[in-house]
Amino acid sequence: MEETISLKELFQTLKKRLALIFMITALATAASGVVSYFFLTPIYQASTQILVNQSKNEQQAYQFNEIQTNIQLINTYSVIMKSPAIMDKVEAQLKTELSEDAITVASEKDSQVFTVTVEDENPAQAVKIANATANVFQSEIKNIMKIDNVSILSKATSGEDPSPVKPQPVLNMAIALVVGLMAGVGIAFLLEYLDNTIKTEQDIEKLLELPILGAITTITEDMEAAGPSQKQSYTKARGETYGA
């Protein structure tokens, strides 16, 4: 006989394992909060914007092809920005070692402006690296590309009370809560699936595929002290009988 699981049985399983589900969810959320607040190093971010644009005299009009060329050059400039030709000079100027992953170059679609973003454990250091990178790039690109079409649109600054961009404890804890809840539910159903013990008459009927003719219930002290009429009220369906 094909075994089916009803929605009621699913809810009963969740109800029975509710404490386990809650414990796993709480542990996952708490662990994420502890790691985020006490073990992960805060990372700060600073950004500077660079404009790619050929200088023009007042009599000269902007040509569409020149603008498109400047936009396409941004892809090349993004590679040059993170190359040793620029990074080595920035490191020498700041007297520090830089990771290539710490600097990100991004541009908006169809825009002549691209943004240089730096991440560092020290917010002041992130600002210094971003501005130094922009200055060195503006100076060196003239020799590398033999063209002077780069200007710094805005310099990186640091606020009075900068906030780290990562980790994000609240987001991490929210993710951990969802993952913990899913894990708890999964473990609850797994334990229920692996539990092959017989607990009720229905389990016997389901296992043997035979009808239950009778059952002997546990006789309590109250039932022993009760009279015949009261004992009759304790009798269950399916013709259950009591043993001495």
Automatic annotation (TrEMBL):
Residues 224-244 are annotated as: Disordered. The keyword Chaperone does not apply. It is found in: Cell membrane. One of its GO terms (molecular function) is protein tyrosine kinase activity. The chain crosses the membrane at residues 18-40, 170-191. Belongs to the CpsC/CapA family. This is Capsular biosynthesis protein. The lineage of its organism: Bacteria, Bacillati, Bacillota, Bacilli, Bacillales.
